[in-house]
Design brief:
By secondary structure, this protein is of the alpha/beta class. It contains 11 helices and 11 strands. The strands form 2 sheets. Strands 1-2-3-4-7-8-9-11 form an 8-stranded parallel β-barrel, surrounded by 7 helices. It comes from Amycolatopsis samaneae.
């Protein structure tokens, strides 16, 4: 199972961000990802970082679709790939109503329709072709004149049944959050795979995004997760995923414990059908160092 790492971009300088990336590459991580969370612009930052970590795939997890037209996002992703020479995993997602309506001022009406149309418009432009898409939510008529040998791979942040079906049919796969072995094996993987097969696409990528801490005090670390991420359990799609795994809340979904425990949990994810692991280290600095070192060896 391929293992990537999500850099911690919140409240850090760009020098710190670059150091994180170099450290991850030196440890052996072959893919480095950035989120788009109101801090550094993920694609721009990766373009600046990418030349200092040659041979590493660069990924976004995830860029909200509503704030960037498909032609604009395709130009950014293909520029990133061309300027760094690195493969690009373009993670996108519809985000959430409070962000789309409260921060962007756009309507969040029928987000799955928007996602489907967005991916249809994005696909030809990433492949170097001209888009001529006229949908209910957007129009994309144009092209991006940047030569690329291979188009960036597109994965969607998805956990609901309909978003997973759209991801399987129109993208290369999906990234999940809070999903454990049971929900992956019984829901995420079958839903994605069936949709991809029905669309005549290859077997989809299943990227399991996990908060992970190698620690001797997992209880304290789960308390921190509850304080930081606990409200996510109130989001219907996340609540459904947590319920599928029998989790009362998000702290139950994290991987926290000693090296043996963490590795056993990771192997369960792989057995459930995850093709890739995206690591989000958390905890004290020394615990994060242990986490990074352990999982880089997978």
């Amino acid at each position: 199972m391929r293992t990537g790492i999500l850099l911690d971009e919140l409240g850090v300088s760009f020098a710190d961000l670059r150091t994180q990336a170099r450290t991850a590459a030196e440890l052996g991580y072959r893919s480095i990802w950035l989120a788009q969370r109101g801090s550094w612009d993920a694609l721009t930052a990766l373009a600046a970082i990418g030349t200092s970590v040659p041979g590493v795939t660069l990924g976004t997890s995830v860029v909200p679709t509503y704030s960037r037209h498909p032609l604009t996002l395709a130009a950014q992703a293909r520029t990133l790939q061309a300027t760094t020479g690195a493969p690009v995993d373009l993670g996108v997602g519809v985000s959430h109503r409070p962000i789309v309506e409260g921060e962007f001022g756009y309507s969040f009406d029928r987000p799955i329709r928007h996602l489907r149309e967005y991916l249809q418009a994005l696909d030809p432009v990433l492949r170097g072709e001209k888009a001529d898409f006229h949908g209910e939510t957007l129009t994309a008529a144009g092209e991006v004149g940047i030569p690329n040998d291979e188009p960036p791979s597109v994965v969607v942040g998805a956990v609901s049944p309909v978003s997973l079906r759209v991801s399987g049919a129109y993208a290369d796969g999906a990234t999940t959050v809070w999903a454990g072995p049971r929900s992956l094996a019984e829901f995420v993987v079958p839903t994605l795979t069936k949709a991809a097969a029905g669309a005549g696409r290859p077997a989809p990528r299943v990227i399991s995004t996990q908060l992970i801490c190698v620690t001797s005090d997992p209880g304290a670390r789960r308390d921190w997760v509850q304080d930081r991420y606990g409200p996510a359990a109130g989001v219907p799609a996340y609540r459904a995923i947590l319920d599928r795994d029998g989790h009362a809340g998000v702290p139950d979904a994290v991987l926290a414990g000693d090296e043996e425990h963490v590795l056993a949990r990771v192997r369960e994810l792989e057995s459930a059908g995850a093709t890739e692991l995206l690591v989000i280290p958390f905890g004290e600095p020394s615990e994060q160092d242990r986490t990074r070192a352990l999982l880089a060896r997978l």
